Amino acid sequence: MESSNLTAVTEFILLGLSTRPELQVPLFLLFLMVYLMILLGNLLIVLLIIVNTFLHTPMYFFLTNLSIIEVCYTTCVFPQMLGHFFRERKSISYSCCVTQVYSFLSFGITECCILSVMAYDRYIAIRDPLRYSVTMNRNVCVRLVTGSWMGGFVSSMVATVATFKLSFCRDNVINHFLCEMPALFRISCTDTSQAEIITQILCVLTLLCPVIFITFSYIHIINIVLQIRSAQGRRKAFSTCSSHLLVVILFFVTVMSLYMRPKFLYSPEKDKIITVFYVAFTPTLNPLIYSLRNKEVKIALRRLLGKTRDA
Predict the structure, then answer these.
(1) At what angle do helices 295-310 and 24-51 cross, to 10 degrees?
(2) For 100-130, how does the pLDDT look when each residue is reduced to its tens digit (9 = 90+)?
(3) DSSP 46-112
């Protein structure tokens, strides 16, 4: 296939979440509400951490980055998806599709890295609390976060280039509500095996390796906590980790079920449901998990609400 065929398709047609006309308005209202909740919840977390100096710790520095990532990668999808609910022809240009794939992957991989860093932070905090502030000093935290962002944006470039080296010359209809690599592979008119191998290698490095690292971190954390004599001490130690662990499970289980499952289990409709879960509902739940299960965040929120009422 000649390289000119790579640009034979100038746009893609997205089938969206549903083709039933009577569902377009209800779906629009539902996902508009979800998107506003994501923005409000995550930006509120960022604001609370910025204005409360007692939250200026490594754990909340990483949480700030996590909330910013949630806002960014949902914004890669929601504005376009909301606009498509009122369009009969749900088209996206080739260049916009490339941008969406790259941005979505970049923020997603960065989130995997940040969640791994947060697990490491919790391990250090529980293993050696007296030296925690020295070990996790500002320079270390900045380097870990910078490495996470750089890792996300560099590695996603490899996958994006591999995907769009494929030719799309017979079919430009994507049975999805966004440009996503698995859906693009299925409409390519050239051999996708090389791109799929690159994607699987990337999944091992950015999904499986972080999961293994986080799992071993929590095994060590549990062993350390179980050695604490007082029940109150064990509860306090577990409470600092439970929120992060719940977020990790919600995020990685859904993403891995989409990107690392066997090809014979492919189902367009199930793919949409899984994607909705980690694009919409996980970012919505994360601020609630951290605020409802975190005493310090609750205190910061009460202070902010108190200042608002006084004003």
Answers:
(1) 90
(2) 999 999 999 999 999 999 999 999 988 888 8
(3) HHHHHH-GGG-SHHHHHHHHHHHHHHHHHHTTHHHHHHHTT-SS-EEEHHHHHHHHHHHHHHHHHHH
pTM of the model: 0.89
Q: Which of 1.10.10.60, 3.40.50.2300, 3.40.309.10, 1.20.1070.10 is the CATH number of 3-310?
A: 1.20.1070.10
Q: Distance between CA 154 and CA 232 in Å, rounded?
A: 44
Q: Tokens in use for 254?
A: 């859904």
Residue type, 228: I
Phi, psi of 10 (to 5 degrees): -100, -10
Positive or negative, the CA dihedral 307, 48, 232, 125 is negative
Q: How far apart (Å, rounded) are the C-alpha atoms in residues 34 and 210?
A: 28
